[in-house]
Specification:
This protein has 343 residues and is of the alpha/beta class. It folds into two domains: 2-60, DNA polymerase, domain 1 (Orthogonal Bundle), CATH 1.10.150.530; 66-341, Aldolase class I (TIM Barrel). Helix content is 37%, strand content 19%. The strands form three sheets. Strands 3-4-5-6-9-10-11-12-13-14 form a ten-stranded mixed beta sheet, with helices on one face. It has a two-stranded parallel ribbon with strand order 1-2. The protein is globular and about 70 Å long. Bound molecules: S-adenosyl-L-homocysteine.
């Protein structure tokens, strides 16, 4: 039995047509599931009895229970969802003026071991299925009675280390018969897995690509992100040029400001040197302290100086406001507390 939430309109259509049903039946089923939110096949009244029987013999509609919900002073909410095999994953809901953004987790744990990240303290246990990613949105929309407008795949895990499932997840939530989340409102964030970037470029999706850069020189970047040994900055930038050529889309570089590590004006100049001819934005992120790690965030003044230095040299940059830090729901803070409690 397959969870219906793991199907794209295309995959469902293929299955139904093979069994003698009509292509439009797949759209009907999607509408019942995502628009009308009816979870009992018997109530899909505009479909034939044979179709309803086929659905109940081959598919189930199973949701993910929310086991914890934490609300931050700024309104950011963090949820712990329980997977069928007992693992817990975290999902975050942020409210902005322009809508509601959900931060989706793509793996249980993460294998990249970035030195500053709480998620990296735990090795990857497994990839999430497309349904488990879709269900993070479904669960939270139902719990809060809201409609999510933006999705960032920036929770625990490396999306390009779970490439096919993440792409399928994007197709599912992007469908006009389902959640209808526009491609431009979806962002996938990678630590810089070059084969993933190239494969993503080939798909030519209108989805936003963010790259966690965090340093403009190999020595510093490797000390922060071991993946840089495998895919050093030069190779990373080449793959991003290919991405830009193929998609004509701007890349967002995430740059975390860590005191004394990557936040000097010399570092800013190196970043300008690296990015000046690239179609991009830089997103400066304040470091969220993680109890187990020694790194400290840059002082506000240094953060501002770094930002000014980039902007004065023609780099488009934004300074991301941190949401949810008081409930450990900010970037890179996910999961650690609960895991430690369970040790
Ligand atoms: N693996 C992907 C997506 C998950 S991490 C990636 O690396 O992009 C999402 C973002 O949070 C990344 O930019 C990551 O570098 C950042 N991050 C990790 N730990 C952080 C911390 N302690 N403070 C602030 N940002 C952090």
């Amino acid at each position: 039995m397959k969870n219906l939430y793991g199907e794209t309109v295309a995959s469902l259509c293929e299955d139904l047509v093979e069994k003698g049903f009509k292509p439009f039946n797949a759209k009907q089923v999607f509408t019942w599931l995502y628009k009308k939110k009816v979870y009992d096949f018997a109530q899909y009244t505009d479909t034939s009895k044979a179709l309803r029987e086929h659905l109940s013999e081959n598919y189930v509609i199973r949701h993910l229970p929310i086991s914890e919900r934490h609300v931050s002073k700024d309104g950011t909410k963090k949820y712990l969802l329980a997977l069928p095999d007992g693992h817990l994953i975290e999902t975050v809901l942020m409210e902005q003026d322009y809508g509601k953004t959900i931060c989706v987790t793509s793996q249980v744990g993460c294998n990249l071991g970035c030195a500053f990240c709480a998620s990296g303290l735990f090795e990857k246990v497994r990839d999430l299925t497309p349904a488990e990613m879709v269900l993070q949105i479904v669960a939270i929309e139902a719990r809060e009675d809201v409609r999510v407008s933006h999705v960032v795949i920036m929770g625990t895990g490396e999306p390009f280390d779970n490439f096919d499932n993440v792409m399928r997840f994007i197709d599912i939530i992007n469908s006009p018969y389902g959640m209808e989340i526009g491609a431009r409102k979806i962002t996938v964030s990678t630590a810089g897995l070059v084969p993933g970037i190239l494969a993503f470029a080939d798909l030519q999706k209108q989805v936003n690509l963010a790259v966690s850069l965090h340093a403009a020189d190999d020595k510093t970047r490797t000390s922060l992100m071991p993946i840089n040994r495998k895919y050093p900055i030069k190779r990373l930038m080449e793959s991003l040029q290919t991405y830009i050529e193929k998609t004509n889309r701007r890349v967002t570089f995430e740059y975390l400001l860590i005191a004394g590590v990557n936040d000097s004006l010399h570092d800013a100049d190196r970043l300008v040197g690296l990015l000046k001819d690239t179609l991009c934005y830089v997103n400066l992120i304040p470091f969220n302290e993680v109890a187990e790690l020694d790194y400290k965030g840059s002082e506000e003044k240094q953060h501002a100086r770094f930002y000014d230095r980039l902007v004065s040299q023609g780099i488009r940059a934004t300074s991301r406001r941190e949401l949810g830090a008081d409930i450990d729901a900010a970037c890179g803070q996910l999961r650690i507390k609960e895991e430690c409690d369970n040790l």
